[in-house]
Amino acid sequence: MTNIVPEINTPTGVANTTAPEVTITFADFGLDPLIQKAVSEQGYTIPTPIQAQSIPHVLAGTDLMGAAQTGTGKTAAFVLPIIQKILRHASSSASPARHPIRALVLTPTRELAVQVSENAANYSRHTDLRAAVVYGGVDMKEQVAILRNGVEILIATPGRLLDHIGSKVANLSQVEILVLDEADRMLDMGFLPDLQRIINLIPAQRQTLLFSATFSPEIKKLAQSYLRTPVTVEVARQNAAADTVKQVVHMVSSADKQNAIVKVLESRTRQGLSRQCIIFTNSRLGCARLSRALERDGIKAGAIHGDKSQGERTLTLDAFKSGAIEALVATDVAARGLDIPDMPLVINHELPFNAEDFIHRIGRTGRAGSKGDAIALVDGSEKRLLDDIEKLMKRKLDVQPLPDIYIPSSKPSSSRAPSEKSYTARVSPSKVADPFFYMPYEAGAAPQSSASAAKSEEKKVGIVSAKPAVGALLGGFKKK
Length: 480
Ligand code: AMP
Prior knowledge:
CATH topology of the largest domain: Rossmann fold
Bound molecules: adenosine monophosphate
Strand content: 5-15%
Structural class: alpha/beta
Distance between the termini: 21 Å
Radius of gyration: 23 Å
Oligomer: single chain
């Protein structure tokens, strides 16, 4: 059992840092045994920091702004207390009238909506509450039937929900709790007008929870409009948890990036490390091209981007989860919200234009205190983007020289990687042994500078995190 200090913000927003040391377990939240049973079945014993901080407030009926990303356990942080709060309405009656929508969760993407609904279905499995999900890009019929039957917890993407409201299939007049999940991304994706229309249909007498990776001025404005004296809870950002992620930058010309990826994966094979990775690209076209090119290089790759249908995305994601695909090439929006636990490696094929997206990207690894590698392939023309990222992270990234790879200048970048034979002919034996050797991560081996930089950042930005370090606390995380 771990001792933690729950640093819970008071409704006035002042962190209570003098709280005595206590041991928090799920049993301490006073959740109904039916919920507690479902939580135990998931294998969770210790709440994550965002759960430890949020659940008591949500149970108390307070509006809440939570700064947390996917991977921190934020879904259970709102789903569990929501189930507790609406459990009094649970009914075994088959009548749809006895199952109105009581809690509404809005998400930016279909993938996130599905994940939240799976969580909701899991945690409410021993109760008579019903959970369902509606999202666009698929036929309405099945969703209409589910909504007509009645559902207490509805998870939806905004556009499709408005379609159902328009055809009078969904009614929000009995909603008691509204959750805006990944609110920053919903705004980025232009959902603000849809959100406004939806929120105006929900009774003013409600509890509103807003989760966002960042609290930009736009998010604060949204919160001012729709939340009442919210309490703010924050957990350490992914970049502050740098001691579990080994970050490396390689300066590589655009033309050499694909070969660099091949070498990275070959190197991991030699070291007995997993080759499962997510590779980020900035454009849909670049994403599709890179995936095809990697396949030609013998890497089991799949692309996930906005031009893919829901069915295609699901197939690719399933193949990735099963290991049939080892490199998932993705754009930021498509990858948003994907729940891929224990991702050992994230590769930035190019740096994102928005520095915050870099943090989202590398947040795919080193989750829940596990170890991960994040590699950025940076072309000289991306130097300014690298500066922006380092400024945001308040630390310099470790630039390591690109090992000497033989790439015939006449070969196009999408051609096969050179064979080991052609390679050995041109470089020294020591480099041949492993041209892309990455020291496997060792806990505590993170350079002092990055660890202290992360700490000082935590202090500067006033991040409230449970103690001890997130990684230690989540040591008991259930691995999927
Ligand atoms: P989320 O940030 O909600 O997407 O959750 C990230 C992952 O952590 C999911 O796979 C959850 O099933 C898992 N998880 C959530 N809460 C806990 C917990 N208290 N202990 C262990 N695993 C958890």
